[in-house]
Amino acid sequence: MKSTPLCQALAVTALCTSSWTSAVTTMADLHLADVSHGWGGELDLSLSGSGGNTVERSVEAGARLSHGGEAATYHLLGSYAYGSGDGVADTDKAFVHLRALKPRQSAPEWQWDTYGQWQQNRFTRLGSRELLGLGVRHRDPSSPAETPSTAGGLGAFYEREQLDATGTEPEQKTHTWRGNLYVVVRHRFGQGLSLSSGSYLQPALDDLEDVRFLQHLSVSVPMTQALELVMDLVVSHDSAPPAKVDHTDWEYLTRLRYRF
Q1: How far apart are CA 66 and CA 44, in angstroms?
Q2: Alpha-helix runs per DSSP H in 21-89
Q3: In terms of CB atoms within 10 Å, which of 35, 46, 136, 212 comes out highest?
Q4: d(C-alpha 57, C-alpha 78), whole Å
Q5: Domains in the chain, start-ordered, CATH in brackets?
Q6: Tens of pLDDT, residue by residue, the chain (260 residues)
């Protein structure tokens, strides 16, 4: 696909306005991935920085490796982000995610959804969070080229979490079961431009007032047949965050993605 003046203008604007990066750990790209039989995947990279009166540096790198087959589709994702301002670190987080989607023979648009994940975030006291989950997912059976494309799922996961100690707060270890409800929609426009939205609701099953919500908006602009520019906005809310951690975070990210 050839690059257009619109794509070039959007790319330059986004790269100039992105001031920091962080690992985007939502599953919108995975749930709408167009996986054929065999191996495929994506590589993401984002860099930003400034010098002079304010010195800032940040980097985010991620990857998705997928394998499609008759019996199941498997996805392995990973991401790491680090950033600093005036020599002081202000971003340090990572995650690894493994997922298996097994279709029902009688209705292949429905799949069993099994997954595991590990993540850490130094600046929200998250030393580690591990989870194992199971659910059911429905993917719009229309062809990948049609629009809009939708996916949604319902399930639950077991979560084990360790919060690091601070000067005033001790180390904490917790475990709980959480529900997992999500809806993802992607709309394709002319010249390959696409807009996707993912919404995720995760209440604790033993305390329904303990709820996590995440909204992910993403715009993808093709630059070549294999390379595209992706701009993300992520808003996450935790109704019961750790002490001295805000209830709501928002982040934006501009990245280059290479598909193979």
Answers
A1: 15
A2: 28-31
A3: 46
A4: 21
A5: 5-259 (2.40.160.40)
A6: 444 444 443 333 333 333 333 334 457 778 877 777 889 889 999 887 787 767 788 888 999 999 988 889 999 999 999 999 888 888 899 999 999 999 988 888 899 999 999 999 988 889 999 999 999 999 887 655 667 889 999 999 999 999 998 878 888 899 999 999 999 999 988 878 999 999 999 999 999 899 999 999 999 999 998 999 999 898 999 998 887 788 998 888 888 999 88
User: Is the entire prediction scored with pTM above 0.85?
Assistant: no
φ and ψ at residue 14, rounded to 5 degrees: -65, -40
What single string gives the DSSP state of each residue in 130-164?
Answer: EEEEEEEEEE--S-TTSSSEEEEEEEEEEEEEEEP
Closest Cα to residue 39, out of 19, 14, 67? 67
